[in-house]
Amino acid sequence: MRPDAVRRVLNAELAAVRERGVPRVLDVGGGSGVWAVPLAASGCSVTVVDPSPNALATLHRRAQDAGVLDKITAVQGDSDALASLVPAGSADLVLGHGVLEVVDDPKTTVAAMAEAVAPGGVVSVLVANRFAAVLHRAVTGRLVDARRLLDDPAGQLVEESLTRRFDVAGLTQLLVEGGLAVELVQGHGVVADLVPGSVLDGNPGAADALAQLELAAATLSPLRDIAARLHALGRKQAPAGQ
Questions:
Q1: Helix and strand totals (H; E) in the chain
Q2: pLDDT in the model for residue 80
Q3: Which pTM does this prediction carry?
């Protein structure tokens, strides 16, 4: 697997946790198991909370195929009821990937994820980038939609399923207001989504070069600020004296 900016950060965090024991991961809205199954395969104990029974059924099949059913706990429920579904402070790492764009109240969801993570642990969120959506529509000729996205503070088109998109400042503020210390905001899909497949197919070594370029660009503004997705890591501070 080629290097990935999000996985690189999470792997480093989990490596530190493994020095103390088995990492406990809570994946909010991750019912299909895209993140949960690989994390369980790497030795983590993973709890997945998702409102969709179909997604959780997919998770079960993937976990069974990977031989990690015993390492994954599936819980059907909404993110706004997280406090009643999982114990406070029970996770070393909480994932909220692709969640904040669709929940009713992102502030409530972030606060619930912050409550679920143990002191010293981290919350990882991955969200759609508002400015990337503007650029994508502009270069594909959808200029009216591009202007609508730019003018809408939430970065939303009414006819879309996404309720909102984020920029760096808004995402950072959301996590801070949720009680987390933001340690990192990086781009995900900075240039990879712009490179035609024909470039990669016709040039030996191009895929590895692109992966390395992605890693180098992930934290560099303004490249980070126009990435397809934004990834942020917020840490829950331990109480004074601990």
A1: 10, 7
A2: 83
A3: 0.92
Quick: pLDDT tens for 181-238.
Answer: 999 999 999 988 888 777 778 788 888 898 899 999 999 999 999 999 999 999 998 7
Instruction: Evaluate whether residue 158 is within a structural domain.
Output: no
AA letter at 72: I
The domain spanning residue 179 has which CATH number?
3.40.50.150
Q: Residue 102: which domain range?
A: 5-129+166-235
| Residue 12: other Cβ atoms inside 10 A | 9
Q: Which residues of 114-128 are buried (b: 16+ CB within 10 A; e: fewer)?
A: bbbbbebbbbbbbbb
Mean pLDDT to the nearest integer, 84-105: 95
Max CA separation in the chain (angstroms): 58
Q: How many domains are there within the chain?
A: 1
Distances (CA, A) of 223 to 112, 128, 139, 185: 31, 15, 17, 12
